[in-house]
Amino acid sequence: MQLIQTLLPLLIQGSLGALVLAVGLDAQVSDVLHLVRRPGLLARAFVAISVVVPAVAVLVVQALPISLPSKVGVILMALAPVPPFVPGKALKLGGHKSYVYGLYVAFAVLAVLIVPATVAVLNQLYGSSADVPMDKLAGTVVFSVLLPLIVGMLIHARWPERASAAAALVGRIAMILVAIVIIPLLFRAWPAMLAMMGDGTVLAMVLIIAAGVAAGHVLGGPDLENRMALAGTAATRHPGIALMIAGASGFDKRVTAIILLFVLVSLVVTAIYQAVIKRVVRRQQPTSPPAPAR
Asked: What letter does residue 146 receive in the DSSP assignment?
């Protein structure tokens, strides 16, 4: 058991790093710096991801009579920005590559500042003592984000066509690795997740995720594709960061179940949003006139 607990964080970090490697293989420096060079877009993304979602989470957990583990798990997910599988999903929605990659890289790096600052504010609000292990957080950013990203970009610079072609394959392999790590955790936590569904916990998650979707859609800029990309990014949080804080702070083990349940609910809500937007777009597209009879 001790061996599993030791290896699990390494497996998670390695599988998530492989996802970032796939991003690097298909990215250029101009892509990575896209939002940094456009502070207006970056500021709007910051409001959607790191202001609206945590603020709504605080209001929701105060308004609903949910259990303490549920409150902790929901708040932890609300403050953890940008999960690694966002770039692939956002690109599938049609988001511009530069916007998607720039958004992901900017917030992956900013997480080192955003997460501790948000935790400090929440500690003051609730009189709690949640702890952010800065060495682990910085290590996660360096080894799971910056290092694989730089390696991928160097490969792309040397062999651009081969690297871009390999990016999709590396991304699929990485998703398989993530599933191998996460699915056993879901099975293990499933009984606890079921036990905590009837007190308003799921409703709280839906409200918070919907707020992230709405904020991203409104603040994502003029392009619908980028608005959808930011909506999905704001609504889908990083379970690895939330689990790290929960473990370092010694929170109830049921918090882990809530974090994983949040992931599932966010996937469902964002899928519904994407389906609705696509349907609306199809309806607005002009239909081709019938071909003249011959």
From this structure: I
- What are the structure tokens assigned to 190, written together? 């499933």
Cβ-based burial of 135 (10 A; exposed 0-12, middle 13-18, buried ≥19): exposed
pTM: 0.80
Residue with tokens 């988001």: 95
Close Cβ partners of 142 (under 8 Å, ≥ 6 residues apart):
none
- CA–CA dist 187, 183 (Å, integer): 6
CA nearest neighbour of 270 among 230, 232, 217: 232
> Which stretches of 127-159 are DSSP H helices?
134-141, 147-158
Q: pLDDT tens, 4-37?
A: 444 555 666 666 677 788 888 888 888 888 888 8
Q: Which two tokens stand for residue 167?
A: 């990016």
Quote the CA–CA distance of 6 and 9 in Å, as a whole number: 7
